Amino acid sequence: MVNMMYRVLVIAGGAFALAACSTPDWMSFDSLKPGPSLDSVSIESEPPGAEAKASNGQTCRTPCSLALPMDAPVTVTFTLAGYQPEAERLEVIQVPGEAPRLRPNPVVVELTPGGPAPSVAKKPATKKPAAKKPARPASAAAPATASAPASPMTASPAQSTSPWPTNPPPVRQ
Questions:
Q1: What would the 3-class secondary structure string for the chain be?
Q2: Which residues, 6 or more positions from 66, have their beta carbon under 8 angstroms from its beta carbon?
Q3: What whole-number distance in Å separates Cα of residue 57 and Cα of residue 9?
Q4: Are 42 and 105 in contact, with CB atoms under 8 Å apart?
Q5: Radius of gyration of the chain (CA)
């Protein structure tokens, strides 16, 4: 009987060892490993109500507290409408004989007003060329006198300095 029990244990142990080589992830023992230690950090801002976002993705509205991992430094970014964004870096402090912790704790940030929105320089309004009156037919034009020399002021209408063509559009019939 003992011999039989010994065989069953050897076969079961071999089957278990063989199965352990091909275990799926959900059966691994990694889930039994402890995760990084967490430290509760109080977060405040002046003015309150800013969104605080940690580099690991956690967010809250100030005043608040976050449980942050202590496996690496963490950056907390503060944003609030009308204020410039601010960032604070938290370092992991290891003191012999004590548990590691994040510093500074509490985190207090004073936000700087964003100032007036940059104004867009407006271009001076450009005058649209005046609508041209249709040219009068030559028969309706006043006859020029050949005996009197025309002065430059009255010789012809002033030339437009507009970059647009001066001829009126053709009339469609």
A1: CHHHHHHHHHHHHHHHHHHHCCCCHHHCHHHHCCCCCEEEEEEEEECCCCEEEECCCCEEECCEEEEEECCCCEEEEEECCCECCEEEEEEEECCCCCCCEEECCCEEEECCECCCCCCCCCCCCCCCCCCCCCCCCHHHCCCCCCCCCCCCCCCCCCCCCCCCCCCCCCCCC
A2: 40, 41, 43, 52, 54, 58, 60, 76
A3: 49
A4: yes
A5: 43
Q: How many CB atoms lie within 10 A of CB 74?
A: 22
> For the ranges 11-25, 95-109, 133-147, 154-168, which has the lowest average pLDDT?
133-147
pLDDT at 120 over 50: no
Task: List the structure tokens of 63.
Answer: 């005043």
Contact 55/74 with Cβ under 8 angstroms?
A: yes
pLDDT confidence of 64, banded at 50, 70, 90?
very high
